[in-house]
Design a protein that fits this description.
Elements lengths: L2 H8 L3 E10 L9 E11 L6 E4 L2 E4 L31 H5 L3 H22 L2
Antiparallel strand pairs: 1-2, 3-4
Length: 122
């Protein structure tokens, strides 16, 4: 993503002064960007620990950042204590569309179809 895309989102939280790509060791022949951006921001309000930028989840961390939940983005708890926990699907709901069950259903349908063909040709 571009610096402009990042700045457009981060500017909701403060003034972006500088964005710099983190580069792996200079010992390599070529500079290799890690994908991490180091930013100098005059923060007006705290930035959540993750935000969406152009459809991508960006992880944000800085000194003094309050803890925010990875699921709901609210402060004061972590995902393991999130009051908005998803209700897990039952095993039967989850398993009925498994690859093994789809193959089994298809096999059973083919066997039933063959039996019907045999019975109609008697």
């Amino acid at each position: 993503m571009t610096e402009t895309q990042i700045t457009n989102v981060i500017s909701n939280y403060g003034d972006v002064n500088k964005i710099q790509d983190e580069v792996w060791s200079q010992a390599y022949r070529f500079k290799v960007k890690s994908g991490v951006r180091i930013m100098d921001i005059g923060i007006r309000k705290h930035i959540p620990s993750h935000i969406k930028i152009e459809g991508h989840r960006a992880l944000i961390s800085y000194e003094g950042q309050p803890m925010t939940c990875f699921r709901c983005n609210e402060q004061g708890h972590q995902i393991s204590e999130c009051p908005r926990k998803r209700i897990p699907a039952s095993h039967t709901d989850r398993d009925k569309n498994s690859w093994a069950n789809m193959v089994k259903r298809r096999y059973n349908n083919e066997i039933a179809s063959e039996c019907n063909d045999i019975n109609t040709h008697k």
